[in-house]
Structure formats: structure tokens, C-alpha cells
Amino acid sequence: MASRLGPRLLTSSSRLLTCSRSRIIPTKPASSPFSRLPLSFRYQSTISTPESYKINGVTYKKDEYSNIPQNILDKLDRNLHLLPSHPISILRSIVEEHFKDYKPLIPSSSIVSVKQNFDELGFPPDHPGRSLTDSYYLNKTYMLRTHTSSHEIESYKSNLNKWLLSADVFRRDEIDSSHYPVFHQMEGTHIWENQNLNQLSKLNEELENKLKECNILIEDETKINEKTNPYQPHHIPQHTDEIVRHLKNSLNSLIFRLFGHHAKKGGEPLKVRWIEAYFPFTTPSYEVEVFWQGEWLELLGCGVVMQKTLDLSGVPDKSGWAFGLGLERLSMVLFSIPDIRLFWTEDSRFLNQFKKGEITTFQPYSKYPPCYKDMSFWLPATTSSSSSVKEVEKDHHGASAAGGKLDLGQSSITSINNNTYKAFHENDYCEIVRDVVGDLIESVTLIDEFTHPKTKRKSKCYRLNYRHMDRNLSNEEVNELQDKVQKRVVEEMGIEMR
Length: 498
Prior knowledge:
The chain is of the alpha+beta class and 498 residues long.
């Protein structure tokens, strides 16, 4: 299960998008949805035209949902989690080594159906994750996965009881040092035949005896609450209690494997805290935090797998637990990497710092100065429209629920010079910035907004902070980029520069 919920519209550009560069990526056996390690390789190509996407020879016809820019298509084949000496891959390997009896799974494609990504996992029709402002769609039927949980059912169908699955996931999001439209998740699960659940008590005693040898202090006041964190119908409470106990013992052990070296150095016990949580595909559910550098850091989400998921997978006679974590988030903490963009650099000064199987502290090799530019604009003037707010929210596929950054104003749709524009959403603005600037943008921050007292028009001012990871940026090239962004947002979002 994915630990980061609420996955992230950009109107399709009329520009002709050309073929991206090709890269070598792992291939899969024809009969399996997963790649196996060791991996064989092939070239992957992506082509986008105004009519369709063509990825690895498969054509996806575009429709009103299609919203994937070329800069995202170019990242479909990077597979950072498979590069042996990359921090993300190092972390993945450590987790796989810790759970050595679990089968590693690597999905062979980033493309999944909407049914796989949302419907089968119980996401309601109005869930914000379905919004075009939050997620990348090839068309109404297919999308780039927003979480590794989209592969849960096919994984359970493989007749494996213990597996770990790693993959890149894609979400439209804000721009800052810890958010990126592509990141990597890892999830694991352990399920048992219901007739064997009585064996868990003994397994838990063994795990708890091993934990006693670890310098770890676990704070856990969670309870199974029938209103907010309930047992599942038809589950025997005693069995669920033992599944939860096994889940907690297993993950406490993993956390100590990842963070315990600092506890050994300082002598103070590693502090771990369990908190009740909600996820659509588990119950009871939990989040886990570790006390790190003076504050509590959220690590992962987990819980007892929804029986509906196992039923759909053809294993209704099994029960168990699942967890999910973000590899970038943990890697930034463990390797002391300050900016998420660094994971995507091909600079040897970054890549050569890391070795397979070792967690080492990143040594900054440069700190080039930032160059910021402010962009102030009026949102499209409100005009009469036959579309109600509810109609537009439906057209946005949950956009208004996606985090409060949808600005409806007095009217949900604005018509300017016979062009129709949807309500302003910050994710749409950030997506244009990314598409123009790429990884040269460090952050986009709203620094001012107000409403004109007479016209009632709304104004926003964003600060765009440019910084190259490997060299200085000149003011001239930043001005050129800023001008390109400005032209795009005026053309595609209907805003008026101040």
C-alpha cells in the first residue's frame, strides 16, 4: 500500500511534441506483469503528438483527460530505483535484504488503468486523487500510476504470500525542495492462509525477543476503534490483533535497521511512535514516526489489508498486512540530501559519492546562488457562465477537493476572446513552469494575493526561484525562461499580467 495518499490539469498544448530520447530499461517475460532480477534490457521510446501517445510501441489515443507533458514522458525510463549505486536503489536494496524471505517485484510498466489505480482499491468517485489537477492521464482509461498500490491485486494474484514491490510513481504537485512530479515508492505485504493464523502468536514471540536486543524505545498507544480504526467485518478480532502485532514487530525491526546506527553511536535509544491513521485500502491502519534530529519524522503508512482487495485477487481465504513508504523521503533523511532534484542529476560528483549497500552522508560539491523572479497577475475576469460550481468540480474530477488551491472566484469558467478557461489551480501553474524550466526551478511560492475592492478580481504573485544544481545561472538566461513561462500561462490559463 502507498504511504502517500492524495495523488496530483494542464490543458493539452497545441504544440507538436516530438520523440523523446531513448534509454535502456528492464524488460519483462511476456507472461508476467513484473520484471525479475537480474534484469535484461531493451530500449524504450516515447512519442507524443496532438492525437496520441505512443509508448513502447503501444498507442494511446488522446481525449479530454490527456495531460502528460513531454518532460514527464522523458522520465518514464529513468528507473533510478534500479541503478545499483544510486541512493534510492541503495535504500531499496537494504529493505529487500532486511526482508530477505520476501519476493522482490518490479512492475514492467508505469502505465496502469484507472480501474487498477483507483476503482479496485476502493477510492470513491469524488476522491481528490482522481483529479486532473493531481494525476497524469494518457486518456480516460489509462494513466501513470500515482502509487504502487495500483499493482496490489495483480501481485496477490501471483500466489505470493510475501513480497516487496518498488516502482516510480507520478503526481502533479507543488514545486519545492521536497516535491517532484516523479518519485519512488516501495511497499510490502505478508499474508497467511486463514487456517494458519493461529501460528502468529509464536512468530510474534520470536520477533519480540529479537527486538529486545535492539536499543529502541517504542511509543504505541494505538487502539482499534470501531468508529475511526475498526476491525473488518468477518475478521476474527483475535486474528486481527495478531496480524497487527506481527506488522508492528516487523516494521519496528526495519526502522531500527535503517536508523539504529545513530542510536548505537549516541547511546540514546531510537524513539519510534505509532499513530492511528486512515487509508482506503487497509483497516485498522497506522502511521509510523521516528524521532530524528529533534523532531518526529513520518516514515510510512501501514495496516491490515482490506478483505475486498484479497477477494478481488482470488485469495478470499487469506488475511494479512501491508506497508508503503516513499524512497526519496527516506533517502533525503538518511543520506542528508537537501534537494530532491539531486536524485535526477547525472553529475558524477553526486553519483560517485555512493556505494551499493552503504548509507553515507552526502557531501555538497556546490552551492550556486539562486536567482528569483516574481510574477504577478490577475486571474481571469469572472463572467456569466451556465456552468455551476458543482458542474465544474465534476469536470475537474475532484479538483476542488485536491487541497484548497482551486480558485473558483465568482465563476467557475471564464470565456476570453472565445477561449474557455477553467478555474485557476496552482498545480496547473506549476506544471507549466516545470514544462518550460525543467529542473532549473527550485521552488515556486505564493508570496501575495488580494482581491480588488471594486472589480472583485483576484490577483496573485508567485516567486519563482531558479537555481542550477551544477553551475551558475546568468540573469539573461533566467529572464528568457521567465518570459517563456509568462507567455505559456497567459496563453493557456487566461491570466493577465500586472
